[in-house]
Amino acid sequence: MTLSTEYDLHHHGDAEVGPGLVDLAVNVRTGTPPSWLRDRLVASLDDVAAYPDPTRATAAVAARHDRPVEEVVPTAGGAEAFVLLARALRPRHAVVVHPQFTEPEAALRAAGHAVDRVLLDGDLTLDPGAVPESADLVVVGNPTNPTSVRHPAGVLARLARPGRTLVVDEAFIDTAPGEPDSLADRGDLPGLVVLRSLTKTWGLAGLRVGYALAPAGLAEGLRAAAPPWSVSTPALVALEACSGPAARAEADAAARAMAADRDHLLAALRRIGGAEVRATPAASFVLVRTPGRSDVRERLRDRGLAVRRGDTFPGLDAEHVRIAVRAPEVTDRLVGELAEIL
Ligand SMILES: Cc1ncc(COP(=O)(O)O)c(C=O)c1O
């Protein structure tokens, strides 16, 4: 289907990487999945002759977020959740807050829904007043890809109201210790759907696993919209394993280490001229603007470094690149090359 949009909504960071390039484009945590999780996945193969049973994983997620099991829907990643929502809902006025990950809009359009964009500007923070009152579906990312901005929970909560579905994509929320500003536990907010993914923190992009937390009625609609058994047995094993306290402590430790690496990147960027950090970053990547220079991505690529282009995101242009937080030595190489280019 042709999307009626001038942006390539299906472009992703993995298209930027290639042989011989250092990957600063993909936001999956390096060194993942951890060995204990690999072991669990390998062991799960003993059970793949049977159809998957989501009962244990669903219960683990429900316990983690203190929600009834009826409000938990395991999904084949956040990407499947976007498609299920687009199938299950009949919005009269769907609004996607941009710049953000483009698959939610793509899924809505593919299901035949018109999409209205609210474009954030300036420091890319969200003013709830910018979302039209008539919107009966609002999609926002928190923290947002590619801006790395984390919106306060209170600001997002103000968008929830009866008669509206508010979808908050929290694929990157566990990149901060303790998951501040998560709405995952807020079963009390009307129409709130929180989407989570195991892709980034656990290095499971190829496994396809995440979940939706939604009011029971909508959760039932999402289950009905899904193909049978779309979440595999290994994916469900990972979901159960990563919902426990030990995994959460590990994610928190990884988030603390990432924050130190991000400080290193920000300090290095401050020391060079011509590259401005577009917004205060809260996630495992930084959005950088190079005013007057739209060739930075290609020039970095010439020098063996892949960063994520910004111009496929509504509201951004080719003066923007998204840079993944990496170990200090990788960052130093990147910023050194960037300084020479600029
Ligand atoms: C913000 C955001 N949400 C959701 C996803 C989808 O992730 P997955 O389908 O692997 O869970 C991505 C992937 O890049 C993302 O960046």
Number of strands: 12
User: Helical segment tally?
Assistant: 11
| Ends apart, CA distance between termini | 40 Å
Largest sheet: 7 strands, mixed
Gross geometry: globular
**Spatial order of the strands forming the largest sheet:** 2-8-7-6-5-3-4
> Could you state the order of secondary-structure elements as H and E?
EHHEHEHEEHEEHEHHHEEHEEH
Overall mean pLDDT stands at 97
Oligomeric state of this protein: single chain
Given as residue ranges, the uncertain stretches (5+ residues, pLDDT < 50) are: none
Molecules bound to protein? pyridoxal-5'-phosphate
Please state the CA-atom Rg, rounded to the nearest Å. 20 Å
Which percent range fits the helix content?
A: 25-40%
Coarse structural class: alpha/beta
| Approximate strand percentage | 15-25%
Give a structural overview.
Residues 22-339 form the Aminotransferase class I/classII large domain. This is Aminotransferase. By secondary structure, this protein is an alpha/beta fold. It is 35% helix and 16% strand. It has 11 helices and 12 strands. Strands 2-8-7-6-5-3-4 form a 7-stranded mixed sheet, sandwiched between helices. It has a 5-stranded mixed sheet with strand order 1-11-12-10-9. A hairpin with a 7-residue loop joins β9 and β10. α3 runs parallel beside α4 (103-110). The mean pLDDT is 97. Bound molecules: pyridoxal-5'-phosphate. Pyridoxal-5'-phosphate is lined by residues 77-79, 101, 141, 145, 169, 171, 197, 199, 205, 210.
Salient structural properties:
single chain; 342 residues; alpha/beta; seven-stranded mixed beta sheet; five-stranded mixed beta sheet; 11 helices; globular; binds pyridoxal-5'-phosphate; EC 2.6.1.-; PyrdxlP-dep_Trfase_small; transferase
